């Protein structure tokens, strides 16, 4: 049995479940309360759980993310929502210099059981300061886990294990996915350890995450019509990367294309490609290719924004390039 | 605004404490002083490396303030935190071993001098990002309030931190949410080598704090009696549940900022003048005048401090190195 819901509803259900299940869990961030959440993820929560647990904050990203870290150190299980990844840069000091380091610097005495959720990605004509994909930066940092739910199941299921994790977890929710609908099986199960094959194939492994997953799946359908059977691998967990699953896909298909909405230079795609070289170089029939965002701040105009981002056509072209 | 860098006359006046309590606080100041003098010596000998920020001269602030708190309270400190850790109850051997980088240190050598942590005494670091501890203190206060715990969080930071956005965001949040946080500003007149008036348009730090709608108190940080009494009042107000209190402790660092500091930014005469206000000898003189301290008393507590330092150094020397095979330990819990 299954039921139909969208990404936003799935995440809302996940937060609701967590708030009901554990009195230590609370939500804080800009406009999570009276406004109902910037993207309506927490609509109705303030009435149900009250202002102590659904806590509207001032526009103080550094302050309230740091306060969430402190609350986690003090025994709570905060979910802190940052409106977009661009705004999270104001809080980067606390995420990188406190949350990620406290366990290590204290010799294991203190850990930070915190979940930070933030919107990432482009595609809505919000221009350069609301559209970037910086999850690759976060995935660089030892001490935090980085998740990218790209399906209804993951939007519904990743939060609970993230809250159960004794260490900080950052969840990137791609804005292009919020209205995506899908069927959620009644017996869904979700982990925060593994990459998952979303479409089985044998000719090429398309490796992606987040908002690029639907684009990769669309590209795979186009490729199927021309006789190329693409496998689509959803990384899901950007740190630590599930190297074994990546290598299994690449070894099977002998061709790989990495799709990443981050900029090409120093990207997460670059890391995945490097690992492929390190692990299965001799099993490749062609150099690994990638499709990333162009090296430009995301523009406002629709045609330029679309041109800056990975698109199914670019993925198809990159795959064809491996076989030409 | 200008700031008067000249030292006021040494603190004087009656000590409203019994002999036992007075000697305990004096002994704690001496313990910090002897531990840090030895640390500086060990730095010269290459036993301690990295940054070493000494608290010498400022002891009255940590000792006077921390003795106004209870064991259940949380402490957030800066990279100049050896004294706070010691007074809070950390074992001197664990501090010294940490500075040596030994496995027997409080963080097994992962943190060093700037990152002393102790779960048992609720010391949440040793934070070497200026202002970095303030948002954490707000969160610890929030957690205590949400869990109906009767504990406050004392957050120590220097005058340099008031230039950081974290200071302003944290004071606002703590006041807005009426959190049990005691903001303890140790104003030693310099953020590293930059004098307060060279970095702040408003040099009256209490004015800044008061603008966030919280009580802001100013005290002579070289006068342990004043420090302790005003902190007791501040603690009482925080415990009453009406929100945070800000205390500015006006103090002075006798030593360099770190071991790499040539002190080009201040005059030797200024330092010498401030030394006449040194918290150990001025407090000792006041106690002697009241008959609460004899020379023998002082020699005995000084000898005890030196013995504790010797034992701590021996403990650190005998310590072991964490095996390199364990390098990746404690990045994640599992």
Structure description:
The complex is a heterodimer of chains A (324) and B (334). With 324 residues, chain A is of the alpha/beta class. Chain A folds into two domains: 2-185, Thiamin diphosphate (ThDP)-binding fold, Pyr/PP domains (Rossmann fold, 3-Layer(aba) Sandwich); 196-323, Rossmann fold, CATH 3.40.50.920. In chain A, 37% of the residues lie in helices and 21% in strands. In chain A, the strands form three sheets. Chain A has a seven-stranded mixed β-sheet, with helices on both faces. The longest helix of chain A is centred in the first third of the chain and has 15 residues, at 7-21. The relative contact order of chain A is 0.12. Chain B is of the alpha/beta class. In chain B, the strands form two sheets. A six-stranded parallel β-sheet of chain B has the order 2-1-3-4-8-7, with helices on both faces. In chain B, strands 5-6 form a two-stranded antiparallel sheet. In chain B, helix 1 runs antiparallel to helix 11 (279-289). Chain B has a single domain, classed as Thiamin diphosphate (ThDP)-binding fold, Pyr/PP domains (Rossmann fold). In chain B, 43% of the residues lie in helices and 11% in strands. Chain B has helices spanning 19-44, 59-66, 82-88, 92-100, 133-146, 165-176, 196-199, 205-210, 224-239, 268-275, 279-289, 295-318, and strands at 74-78, 123-127, 153-158, 181-187, 190-191, 194-195, 216-220, 245-250. Chain A binds chain B through residues 26, 52, 57-58, 60, 62-76, 78, 93-94, 97-98, 102-111, 142-143, 145, 165-167, and chain B through 74, 105-111, 115, 117-119, 124-127, 129, 132, 134-144, 146-147, 153, 165-166, 169-170, 172-173, 176, 329-334.
